[in-house]
Amino acid sequence: MDISIVIPLYNEEESLPELVAWIEKVVEKHGFSYEIIMVNDGSSDSSWKVIEDIASKNGNVRGICFRRNYGKSAALHCGFKASKGDIVLTMDADLQDSPDEIPEFYRMIKEENFDLVSGWKKKRYDNTLSKNIPSKLYNATARKISGIKLHDMNCGIKAYRSEVVKSIEVFGEMHRYIPIIAKWAGFHRIGEKIVEHRMRQYGKTKFGLNRFIHGYLDLLTIMFISKFGKSPMHIFGAVGSVMFLVGFLSALWLGIYKIYCMSANIPAILITSNPYFYIALTAMIIGTQLFLAGFLAELISRNSSERNNYLISKNI
Predict the structure, then answer these.
(1) Which 3 state secondary structure label does DSSP give 70?
(2) Would you write out the chain's pLDDT as a tens digit for each of its 316 residues?
(3) Burial letters for 165-194: b for 16+ Cβ neighbours within 10 Å, e otherwise?
(4) Sign of the alpha-carbon dihedral angle for 46, 48, 54, 56
(5) What are the residue ranges spanned by the domains of the chain?
(6) 247/285 Cα distance (integer angstroms)
């Protein structure tokens, strides 16, 4: 099969028939063998009924229905797991992504040998406060930290080689940073394509100002896991050791200075009356806690069933 098109959705009943008809027109025009996997993320409207109706008329359409709303990452993960195509595309269900982009995404993967191609909505029609500003902020930060030169990491329309989506795990709300997850998994050929961004025709956006907080925390999480997920002691142990050493040396200096003052009959305040003593003590306590946190995390990591799961690209 040439293409699997994964569409996560939540309360998009009005747009689904139009979207599927548009996709069918494009892929059949170019002679692609295809499947459309629509993942209903616990919609409260009639989205699932619409999917069932479409699937009954088109054998290329499949559906997955969650019992409740789990989020876009969960929907993508299940869609990736169910996909069978050589190339896997994702797009949003709100008709803001154009299916006319599919052939060029397919060509870039097949002919230009990219592992992943991400869309770039260079001209957007979103509300500036709730979507545009957070998007620019986090994309700039993600580019700086990850080294991936993409303008719009969270663009809904993307294309992947099948081995990419079968090798990564999208969890939490990490769909915003799938290119970083893919790079972490060893897929470095990541490209970008400017795509058309269309005005929403039905319903309303599912995202708000919480993107400010969630985007920032998700970026910290993905970067921490990518760097220290296998060796948490490297960060906790190092920082804890440094803090404990600074606190210990400070306390030692206060003790030596007190002994010197006593031997030289120089008036000096009690060590316990010196505020620096409590700063040093606090540093030692925090340092010890961080070290123990790293030690416990290392024990958990060593006992994980996935501790020796490695991605192998070729084997002869």
Answers:
(1) coil
(2) 899 999 999 999 999 999 999 999 999 999 999 999 999 999 999 999 999 999 999 999 999 999 999 989 999 999 999 999 999 999 999 898 999 999 999 999 999 999 999 999 887 766 555 566 667 777 787 888 788 889 888 888 999 999 999 998 888 778 888 998 899 888 999 999 999 888 777 766 655 556 666 767 777 777 776 666 667 888 888 999 999 999 999 999 999 988 888 888 888 788 888 889 999 999 999 999 999 998 888 887 776 655 555 555 555 6
(3) bebbebeebbbbbbbbbbbbbebeebbbbe
(4) negative
(5) 3-228, 233-302
(6) 9
CA distances from 44 to 47, 70, 206, 248, 288 (A): 8, 13, 13, 59, 49
Strand, coil or helix: what is 196?
coil
CATH of region 3-228, choose from 1.10.287.130, 3.40.50.2000, 3.90.550.10, 3.40.47.40: 3.90.550.10
Q: Which of 107, 122, 141 is nearest to 2 (CA)?
A: 107
Write down the residue that tokens 């008809």 correspond to.
Answer: 21
Six-digit token string for 46: 């009639």
Contact 83, 35 (CB under 8 A): yes
* Separation between Cα atoms, residue 41 and residue 10, nearest integer Å: 5
